[in-house]
Design brief:
Layout (H helix, E strand, L loop, with lengths): L4 E3 L4 E10 L3 E8 L5 E8 L6 H15 L9 E7 L4 E7 L4 E2 H6 L6 H19 L5 E2 L8 E4 L2 E4 L6 E2 L19 H4 L5 H17 L17 H5 L7 H10 L11 H9 L20 H21 L5 E5 L9 H10 L11 E6 L5 E6 L2 E6 L4 E8 L10 E4 L5 E5 L3 E6 L4 E7 H4 L11 E7 L5 E7 L2 E6 L4 E7 L5 E5 L4 E7 L10 E7 L5 E7 L3 E6 L5 E6 L2 E6 L4 E7 L11 E2 L5 E6 L2 E6 L5 E5 L11 E6 L5 E6 L4 E5 L9
Antiparallel strand pairs: 1-2, 2-3, 3-4, 4-6, 5-6, 7-9, 8-11, 9-10, 12-39, 13-14, 14-15, 15-16, 17-18, 18-19, 19-20, 21-22, 22-23, 23-24, 25-26, 26-27, 27-28, 29-30, 30-31, 31-32, 33-34, 34-35, 35-36, 37-38, 38-39
């Protein structure tokens, strides 16, 4: 091995000696032939790898390190393959220092000043990593991976690193070192809080001169008894002991997880002495700017509390100011004066869909798609990220009929994402499927999507005077329907029907009418056609294909989809253009439609209102509903409004009536 030369992408590196060796690889000191600089080469031997996860972690380490620029984190200089690809390697900065583990192994005492200085440097490193977008989680912060060189604390060995909310977020792998891992990391759910816990345990162990397994525990809570472990001999300031105690709490909700907050606590000065008892406290004039600041703070806190406070019938909320789709600046400005687009563009939620079991929900915003654990109200994975296509982004998403895939449709394509692993499997572009129908003078218009009876999905686009019905899983056009033009269309009956409407000439809005045509997708033949006496704004068809629910200028109207005859009119507050939507329960008995800054739910058989959710302003402003869908059991309704939060509502039985 001595004298061996690695051929990298940017140069050649001669092996000078070994630094360490493990079961699947080794680390060497190498010299760059071009510059003579001494570096470290980390090599993974593929013939010793018995789990592909090791390769994934190695490649992830190289990728993450290449994107980090910090004076106390090794920089990746080059990568290489040796022996025909049987060995993978990365070349990085060589750190000549002693690990903190050496202090434990050699029972070397560490002064209070050194401990505080190194702790501060460690928190600065974590603040840098966790401040990345998305946050970088090391997952193995231990004394072996913390080195001191010339008084500077370095963090090395990023082999267990991950980026929070990455596509691998649902792959729960317990990576780390026992004794330094908090409970959630052992369960494979490490976040920035896990790094904070590990750093805290590291410095408690260092101060006590004991390995984690020998640290005293509190008998009631099971946490590390920091004060008993550290004792008075170390001379650590009380503020430092308080921070270490907060960092090592087992419960994530009680733990200090913000490195910047920890640094602030370490820097906090003791309160100034109070005025002498014999003297008089100096009078202070309250300045106008202080009053205005207090009023503004109360306004923001009130708006945040109003957003988090559940409304009547609300059983859950996915996302908020600090999680999910909302962008914090947009959320704050929206709370202050009602305009979520006043500063930065808001991440409006465009579509929501439940999985077949009702425990998973996917939501699509302007430029990203998230998969949620409904019961835990947390993000399981970022399914896909999209460029904001002219301010529209994702137009529709839904699960395939068999529940194994999610289809994400934009104005120009549909992407198929496997639920297992949340990775993109296929992409279908409308222009590639349109043939001679689409000239380059025309841009396709997205119409609708639906889970299909055959276990797949159907998506429809308008291309000039033709509607293309596409099976994105198979990557083919199911039917080209020559409609002659349309103002809107919807798929129904689990992809077996296409409904198209077109406005007729009208002198006034009140006198407007629309022609509605129902097509059979399998045959391409017209099933029925009828004249709606009001201007159609939106519609939906029940899964059995029996009924159409039309949103028109008077409210809701229920039609027989086979005969083209009216069944029932449900007068409601006339919707605005942006509120012209309707969602049907899977059994076809309920219809939800946005009204008055909320959603009203009607029973189609009786026309009675069974529920009204969030119809009054929440906080200080009315939020318009942008997307909604029923859960498979029809008892939960998910809505997404202007505040970019997905809310869950409990729907009463169809026989109940709510005013």
């Amino acid at each position: 091995m001595m004298g061996e030369v690695f051929e990298g992408e940017r140069g050649r590196y001669e092996v000078l000696g070994a630094l360490g060796e493990g079961g699947m690889g080794a680390t060497f000191v190498v010299r760059a032939e071009a510059t003579g600089e001494r570096l470290a080469a980390k090599v993974l031997r593929m013939d010793r790898v018995d789990d592909w996860k090791a390769v994934e972690l190695f490649e992830r380490e190289a990728k993450v390190l290449a994107g980090l620029d910090h004076p106390r984190i090794p920089k990746v200089v080059d990568t290489f393959r040796a022996d025909g690809g049987t060995r993978l390697g990365l070349v990085q900065t060589l750190v000549n220092g002693r690990t903190l583990q050496s202090h434990l192994d050699e029972h070397r005492s560490v002064s209070a000043g050194e401990l505080v200085d190194w702790l501060r440097q460690g928190l600065e490193l974590l603040a840098f990593l966790h401040g990345r977008v998305p946050p970088v989680v090391h997952r193995d912060v231990t004394p072996r991976n913390l080195l001191v060189a010339d008084g500077q604390l370095w963090l090395v060995d990023f082999g267990a690193v991950k980026t929070a909310l990455s596509g691998q977020a649902t792959v729960h792998t317990a990576v780390g070192t026992f004794g330094y891992m908090p409970p959630e990391q052992i369960m494979g759910q490490a976040g920035p809080g896990a790094d904070m816990y590990a750093l805290g345990v590291t410095f408690v162990a260092l101060a006590a001169g004991l390995e984690p397994g020998r640290l005293p525990l509190d008998g009631d809570s099971g946490r590390i008894d920091v004060r008993r472990a550290v004792g008075d001999a170390t001379g650590l300031p009380g503020a430092v002991v308080d921070v270490l105690e907060a960092m090592t709490r087992p419960g994530l909700g009680q733990r200090l997880v913000d490195a910047r907050e920890a640094l602030a606590r370490l820097s906090r000065e003791p309160e100034a002495a109070s005025p002498a008892r014999t003297g008089k406290a100096p009078a202070r004039r309250v300045k106008v700017r202080h009053l205005l600041g207090a009023a503004l703070l109360c306004w923001v806190v009130g708006a945040y509390a109003a957003q988090r406070w559940p409304g009547e019938g609300e059983v859950g909320a996915l996302g908020g100011w600090f999680s999910g789709h909302p962008r914090l600046v947009s959320a704050v400005t929206g709370a202050l004066w009602g305009d979520y687009a006043a500063t930065l563009g808001p991440n409006y939620v465009r579509a929501v869909a439940f999985g077949p079991d009702g425990r998973t929900l996917v939501s699509a915003a302007t430029d990203d798609v998230l998969a949620w654990d409904v019961e835990g109200e947390r993000v399981d994975a970022v399914v896909e990220a999209f460029e904001d296509q002219g301010g529209w982004g994702v137009q529709w998403l839904g699960f395939s009929g068999d529940g194994r895939s999610v289809v994400v449709a934009t104005a120009e394509d549909a992407r198929v994402v496997d639920v297992q692993g949340w990775t993109e499997r296929a992409r279908v572009a409308v222009r590639d499927l349109s043939g001679d129908v689409l000239s380059y003078a025309w841009r396709p218009t997205f119409l609708d999507g639906v889970a299909a009876a055959d276990g797949g999905a159907r998506v429809a686009w308008a291309v000039d005077a033709t509607v293309l019905v596409v099976d994105p899983l198979a990557g083919r056009v199911v039917r080209k329907v020559p409609t002659g033009g349309q103002d809107g269309a919807a798929l129904g009956a689990r992809g077996e029907r296409l409904v198209v409407w077109r406005h007729r000439e009208w002198a006034t809005y009140e006198a407007a009418t629309s022609t509605v045509t129902v097509w059979d997708v399998a045959t391409g033949l017209e099933v029925t056609r009828f004249l709606a006496p009001k201007r159609v704004q939106s519609l939906a068809m029940t899964d059995d294909g029996a009924r159409l629910v039309v949103v028109d200028s008077a409210g809701l109207a229920v039609w027989d989809a086979q005969q083209g005859t009216p069944l029932r009119a449900i007068p409601t507050t006339p919707p605005g253009y942006d509120q012209a939507r309707v969602a049907l329960s899977p059994d076809g008995r309920l219809a939800a439609t946005p009204r008055d800054g909320g959603v009203r739910v009607f029973a189609l058989d009786s026309g009675e209102q069974v529920a009204a959710f969030g119809v009054r302003p929440r906080g200080y402003f009315v939020w318009d509903v942008d997307a909604m869908t029923f859960a498979p059991d029809g008892r939960t309704l998910a809505t997404a409004a202007t505040d970019q939060v997905v809310r869950l509502w409990r729907v009463p039985e169809a026989g109940a009536v709510s005013r």
